[in-house]
Amino acid sequence: MPRPDLSLLPNEDTSAKNRFGPECRRPSREVNDAMNAENVRINLRYDQADLKSLLRYAKAHDIERGGRYDIRLPPRLNIWTHTWTHPGCRAESSLMFSMEFDWSTASLMSVRLQPGYNWTIFLDELARLQRAALGNRVYGKSRCEPKT
């Protein structure tokens, strides 16, 4: 004689976790972090050649090849905490910032700051990227440091 299914009797725990399995628990950390990220709309214009140099540098220093940058379309540049030189580094690395560019106006249009990273850290990372990609050139002209 077949046994009756007693899995959902009244007074039983009927939470989503128990009814549907472990995959129905609360969203993962990545989803929570994406929901808590701060999106900042800006309009930082570049010279077309400078933007091209910046994106070329980022592509040459891709996260898959020992760098910290990840280029996606439409151009979106992601900056990671550290390189993915081996699986342990990849597991520990986290996304810091995501920058969206508008190629037609050669502008940085928005920045997504991931939780734990603020505007000051972003500006430092952007300056580091610009210095590496453009050297002393900004807006197509040589950068002059103030003399003290």
Structure in words:
The chain is α+β, with helices and mostly antiparallel strands and 148 residues long. 32% of the residues lie in helices and 24% in strands. The protein has a domain at 39-131: 2-Layer Sandwich (TATA-Binding Protein). The strands form two sheets. It has a five-stranded antiparallel β-sheet with strand order 1-5-4-3-2, covered by helices on one side. Strands 6-7 form a two-stranded antiparallel ribbon. A hairpin with a 2-residue loop joins strand 6 (137-138) and strand 7 (141-142). Helix 3 packs across helix 5.
Detail the topology: elements first, then pairings.
Layout: H1 16-20, H2 29-36, E1 38-45, H3 48-60, E2 69-72, E3 76-80, H4 87-92, E4 95-102, E5 107-113, H5 119-134, E6 137-138, E7 141-142
Helix pairs in contact: 3-5
Outline of this structure?
The protein has five helices and seven strands.
> Structural class of the helices, strands and pairings?
alpha+beta
What is the end-to-end distance?
Answer: 94 Å
Shape: globular
CATH topology description of the domain at 39-131: TATA-Binding Protein
As a percent range, the share of strand residues is 15-25%
Major sheet strand order: 1-5-4-3-2
Unreliable parts: 4-32
For the report, how would you describe the main beta sheet? 5 strands, antiparallel
Estimate percent helicity.
25-40%
